[in-house]
């Protein structure tokens, strides 16, 4: 995902942000665990609000995790205690444990701009 922002007025600035999903497809099994990774560049990850979103087949998008830091975070009740997010200098992670069949979905990440 690439995002370009323009500041309008006398001065034009372009900002490029790159978010790259490391794993394209990850098989899981009920009761198992998985880790998804979002490689980030072009912005300071430590001061950025990040999100994990999922979409199960035939369902709407669902916001499942907001994460700024260990102090400022939120998990949707459907994944509470089973899914956690973490950040380091360049990556945003989703740790998924105690997988259930209903967790089968496409997972997306995004940031607040």
UniProtKB/TrEMBL annotation:
Residues 33-111 form the Immunoglobulin V-set domain. GO terms for cellular component: extracellular region; immunoglobulin complex. The keyword Transmembrane does not apply. Keywords: Adaptive immunity, Immunity, Immunoglobulin. It comes from the Eukaryota. GO terms for biological process: adaptive immune response. InterPro entries: Ig-like_dom_sf (IPR036179), Ig-like_fold (IPR013783), Ig_V-set (IPR013106), IgHV (IPR050199). This is Immunoglobulin heavy variable 9-1. It comes from Hucho hucho.
């Amino acid at each position: 995902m690439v995002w370009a922002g323009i500041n309008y007025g006398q001065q034009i600035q372009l900002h490029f942000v790159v978010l790259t999903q490391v794993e394209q497809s990850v098989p899981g099994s009920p009761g198992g665990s998985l880790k998804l990774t979002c490689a980030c560049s072009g912005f300071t990850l430590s001061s950025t609000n990040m999100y994990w979103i999922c979409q199960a087949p035939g369902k709407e998008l669902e916001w499942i995790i907001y994460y700024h830091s260990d102090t400022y975070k939120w998990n949707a009740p459907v994944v509470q205690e089973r899914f956690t997010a973490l950040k380091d200098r360049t990556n945003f992670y989703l740790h998924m444990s105690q997988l259930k069949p209903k967790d089968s979905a496409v997972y997306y990440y995004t940031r607040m701009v």
